[in-house]
Design brief:
Layout (H helix, E strand, L loop, with lengths): L3 H41 L4 H25 L3 H26 L6
Helix pairs in contact: 1-2, 1-3, 2-3
Amino acid sequence: MILAGQYLKADRFARAVEIAARAIAAILGGYGLAVLCSVALAMVLPMARADAVLTGMLAGLAVHAGSAIWVFAASSAARAWVGLLVAAVPLAATAMLGLWRTTGGMLP
């Protein structure tokens, strides 16, 4: 015989796993997105190197905060991870393009 309390424990565990997955996405995924944003902007902004790095880092802080908010607003943890990856692809491509441009066409 299955008691109603067993269903509640299973639901609580599933909800806790969902929240933990979102928290990990917000912390680690948001950090990765912020780093990619700061690197991409530092590579492509047409200003002095120090100013470009500072601007990129400040923008990265805003991206990290925005991505954390978006992760918890997404309908599921899987959608949150996919959204972070979709946002990371153009930033990574921009960073690689900037690296390619600054090294004279040679990538390490």
